[in-house]
From TrEMBL:
Keywords: Membrane, Transmembrane, Transmembrane helix. This is Integral membrane protein. Signal peptide: none annotated. It comes from Streptomyces chilikensis. The chain crosses the membrane at residues 102-123, 129-149, 170-192, 212-232, 264-282, 294-312. It comes from the Bacteria.
């Protein structure tokens, strides 16, 4: 019996961390747990939207059933959010191995390209120096990846405070790595050079007159990366920009805004920088004895792209604003003043911050009516929610609100407070 129980216990442990693991103790379990919780939430939301699953005790009252549904969805959304954050942490923890494979795969690709191009031209000291520079760069990135293995490996420096990939940091990092690789290539050739003229020529390849374009671009993209972090931080602290933390970074963050929509400023910055980097790599391959001399025309194009990206960061965002508050009226209802127990419709802009469209973020929205904080109820429809939305919120006026003139204010999921709008509540 003891042997059988031990075997069953071992088998249960194996099954718990096998294909159906949902405990979150392992990466696969975190992913499976999130998918299971999300599927359950979507089924529950669509069921409530179709009028299914309501208990008889609240089915007779529209306001009671709406509040009960909202509370149930809020609890389920919190479970989904917890699972999503656990999956994000597990994903970052195992990402560092993938970054290592990419780094060393790029090194092997460089070796293959050099071997193919050397069939007719022959192997040169510049090719050896380039390969050694790639090995040194890959080793340094591998060490950094292991050190930041809990934060995504090589990607750790380009992940912003909002847990998204930063476009400005990614572009600046690419230029820094390219410059370091070019200098290491020159250093390798200089170490292998035997004649004075050859060494003097290699040292002359580092002259500013030859690499002025690349040095200028490098300086500008690094300054832009620092400025963007400062600008975003100041705008968030000054309540002029709403930022919510993502559950995990995604590659699409480099080309989209926080809500996942394509962003022109980000796209043009990445595309133009990538084109300039490709041109620089070709110049380095053709003339490895000097820094890649980016033409000033191409350098100016990159600078204009960086200025456009920075201007886009200054222009994005804005504070949420309440424009009006009216009494919500259903079909067949009589017109009248706002009374305690009525629903009010708050119209404005910016109530849902970019990236805060998930149910757990929507459930955090609050409306202050006088001294009473009213949580905005979640009203499900098939495929989403009709309340709250970015421009309209509907909340009931609780009995705790005293009749008279009161002020209405919205607090978004990002913590920003709107302006106050005065309304009259009658008995």
């Amino acid at each position: 019996m003891a042997v059988q129980e031990a075997g069953q216990g071992a088998g249960a442990g194996k099954d718990a961390h096998g294909g159906g693991c949902t405990c979150g103790d392992c990466p696969h379990g975190a992913r499976a747990g999130h998918r299971k919780a999300l599927a359950a939430f979507l089924h529950q939301r669509d069921g409530f939207a179709a009028g299914k699953g309501l208990p008889a005790a609240v089915a007779h009252s529209a306001s009671a059933s709406r509040q009960w549904v909202s509370d149930e969805l809020t609890q389920s959304a919190a479970e989904v959010a917890d699972r999503s954050r656990a999956e994000g942490r597990a994903w970052l923890a195992r990402l560092w191995k993938s970054t290592l494979r990419v780094v060393w795969g790029a090194t092997v690709l460089l070796l293959m390209v050099q071997a193919l191009t050397a069939i007719r031209a022959g192997w040169t000291a510049a090719r050896t120096a380039g390969l050694l520079a790639a090995l040194v760069t890959a080793a340094a990135l591998s060490a950094a990846s292991w050190y930041h293995r809990e934060r995504g490996g090589v990607l750790a420096p380009v992940i912003g405070e909002d847990n998204r990939l930063s476009t400005s940091r990614a572009v600046a990092t690419a230029w820094v790595l390219f410059t370091a690789f070019a200098v290491l290539t020159l250093a390798g050739q200089l170490a292998a050079a035997s004649g004075h003229r050859e060494r003097d020529a290699l040292i002359a390849g580092l002259d500013l007159a030859r690499g002025a374009g690349m040095v200028t671009v490098l300086a500008v993209v690094c300054v832009v990366a620092v400025l963007v972090r400062r600008v975003v931080g100041l705008r968030v602290q000054g309540q002029r920009l709403q930022k919510v933390r993502a559950h995990r970074p995604r590659a699409a963050d480099l080309l989209t805004d926080d809500s996942g929509r394509g962003n022109f400023a980000d796209i043009q910055y990445v595309v133009i920088s990538a084109v300039a980097l490709v041109f620089g790599l070709v110049r380095l391959a053709r003339r490895p004895e000097q820094l890649p001399d980016l033409p000033w025309g191409l350098a100016v194009v990159v600078l204009v792209s960086a200025a456009t990206y920075l201007a886009g960061k200054y222009a994005e965002g804005g504070r949420p604003v309440v424009l009006s508050v009216v009494r919500a009226r259903e079909a067949g209802d009589l017109d009248g003043p706002i009374r305690t127990g009525d629903d009010i419709e708050i119209r404005g802009v910016g109530f849902v911050p970019p990236g805060a469209g998930s149910a757990d973020r929507l459930s955090r929205m609050v409306v202050r009516i006088g001294a009473v904080n009213v949580h905005v109820p979640l009203v499900p429809v098939t495929g989403g929610f009709s309340n709250p939305s970015d421009t309209v919120l509907t909340v009931p006026v609780p009995a705790e609100v005293e009749p008279g003139r009161v002020e209405v204010q919205v607090v978004t999921a990002a913590g920003l407070e709107t302006n106050r709008m005065a309304v009259d509540i009658t008995e």
